[in-house]
């Protein structure tokens, strides 16, 4: 599975990449620091999955996800965000996203979301 990581915090991208690099069958193909870069990278690289922060400069993750889904509906997107309440989960579902993982979650939760996407399922926290 080819993955793009989009987050404006380098330490978060490094942590996500570290979790993913220890997972079989997963390849991080690119990192983006804002929604605009994520759109450009997604268009060029056609990743299988994008793990994207909700709150980023230039263009937020939610707006970028709408553009990416419009251009490449087959690209799975999992939001990785500090926002994980019912309102944001519902917004993510309505936008056609494939999941949401709270940044406070551990590595196994992120891997569970990726596994769900691999099996054409969604992954949203139960509140």
Describe the secondary-structure layout:
Elements: E1 2-6, H1 10-21, E2 27-32, H2 35-45, E3 49-52, H3 61-71, E4 76-81, H4 86-94, E5 99-102, H5 107-118
Parallel strand pairs: 1-2, 1-3, 3-4, 4-5
Question: How does this model look, in words?
Answer:
This protein is α/β, with parallel strands linked by helices and 127 residues long. The chain has one domain: Rossmann fold (3-Layer(aba) Sandwich), CATH 3.40.50. Helices cover 43% and strands 20% of the residues. It is built from five helices and five strands. The chain has helices at 10-21, 35-45, 61-71, 86-94, 107-118; strands at 2-6, 27-32, 49-52, 76-81, 99-102. A five-stranded parallel beta sheet has the order 2-1-3-4-5, sandwiched between helices. Helix 2 packs parallel to helix 3. The mean pLDDT is 94.
Instruction: Give the assembly state of these chains.
Output: single chain
Mean pLDDT: 94
Order of the strands making up the biggest sheet = 2-1-3-4-5
What's the level 1 CATH class?
Answer: Alpha Beta
Termini separation comes to 29 Å
The beta-strand count equals 5
The class by helix and strand makeup works out as alpha/beta
CATH superfamily: Response regulator
What is the count of DSSP helices, taking H or I runs of 4+ residues?
A: 5
Beta-strand proportion:
15-25%
Number of domains: 1
CATH architecture: 3-Layer(aba) Sandwich
Q: Largest sheet, if any?
A: 5 strands, parallel
Radius of gyration over all CA atoms, rounded:
13 Å
Pick out the low-confidence regions.
Answer: none
Q: Fill in the CATH topology.
A: Rossmann fold
Order of helices and strands: EHEHEHEHEH
Helix content: 40-55%
Shape: globular
